[in-house]
Amino acid sequence: MGFLLETIIGGLMSGVLYSLVAIGFVLIFKASGVFNFAQGAMVLFAALAMARFSEWLPALLGIDSKVLSNVLAFTAAMALMVVVAWLIERLVLSKLVNQEGITLLMATLGITYFLDGFGQTLFGSAIYRIDVGLPKEPMFLLENLFPGGVLVSKEDLYAAGIAALLVVVLSLFFRYTSTGRALRAVADDHQAAQSVGIPLNRIWVIVWSVAGFAALVAGMIWGSKLGVQFSLSLVALKALPVVILGGLTSVPGAIIGGLIIGVGEKVSEVYLGPSLGGGIEIWFGYVLVLFVLLVRPQGLFGEKIIDRV
């Protein structure tokens, strides 16, 4: 029982991080109708910026404090992501208003490859380390209930806490701020939002900036765990089933979908892997989503689309 609980907790930790990447997909799709394949590249680009700024700024400014260095590096990386968001809107999205969905999808693919290449040109292509002070040592919980306790990584626990905090902040932002309400209005109906004076161009810059912020937090956490390297952009492929399972327009769906897939892939790999030959963790999310789509094409929490003829 203790081992099962340990596996479930590990799956929940992974699921929260998947959700963090998936939220970026959902935010952009809700506000602009664009399925942003560049979200993984944004995670890599933001993580590269964070890693390199944390090296460059202390040397440039003569700072010895690791905490202050990380704060400055995070701030500089976030400023860069806002600039990237503004350039994407100015140079790409504003030129493709009212175009077909496939055109916008291909545009985000182009942005993906550009960010992958430009990020490595600008910051380098080596493996970099992000040290934000997350503890690496494990801890044991519930030792009174289970022999030996339940092994939990402190780093995963802190990372899940940071991700959960970001989700709460985004939820409060969307619910209680005027900008958040404008974003929700645009998500519901672009033309109606324009008719009441909401500027779509500014809204799209904001939503891409918020997605960039989510990508930066995700890149910081994944970079702290795995190191910042080119394969980090592939984390978006793990988040795709999460987005589809939860629903393309649902932030709570992205969170719950991430938890379901995180737990499901860990449990299936541990308990079914030995008999099926392993590798289940790689394809579990996609197979689960395939079955869900056969029953509920809009996902668990997505809005059902009804076309009237």
Features:
mainly alpha; two-stranded antiparallel sheet; 309 residues; globular; 72% helix
Write the layout of secondary structure elements.
Layout (H helix, E strand, L loop, with lengths): L1 H31 L6 H23 L4 H26 L9 H23 L14 E4 L8 E4 H23 L1 H11 L1 H6 L4 H27 L8 H12 L4 H21 L1 H4 L3 H16 L14
Antiparallel strand pairs: 1-2
Which runs of at least 5 residues are low in confidence (pLDDT < 50)? none
Beta-strand share of residues: under 5%
Structural category is: mainly alpha
Mean pLDDT: 81
Strand order of the largest sheet: 1-2
Number of domains: 1
Main pleated sheet:
2 strands, antiparallel
Compute the number of helices. Answer: 12
Evaluate the radius of gyration: 20 Å
Number of strands: 2
Percent range of helical residues: over 70%
Shape estimate: globular
How is this structure best described in words?
- The longest helix has 31 residues, at 2-32.
- The chain starts with a helix and ends in a 14-residue tail after the last helix.
- The chain has one domain.
- The chain contains twelve helices and two strands; from the N terminus they run H-H-H-H-E-E-H-H-H-H-H-H-H-H.
- The relative contact order is 0.19.
- Strand 1 and strand 2 (150-153) form a beta hairpin.
- It is mainly α and 309 residues long.
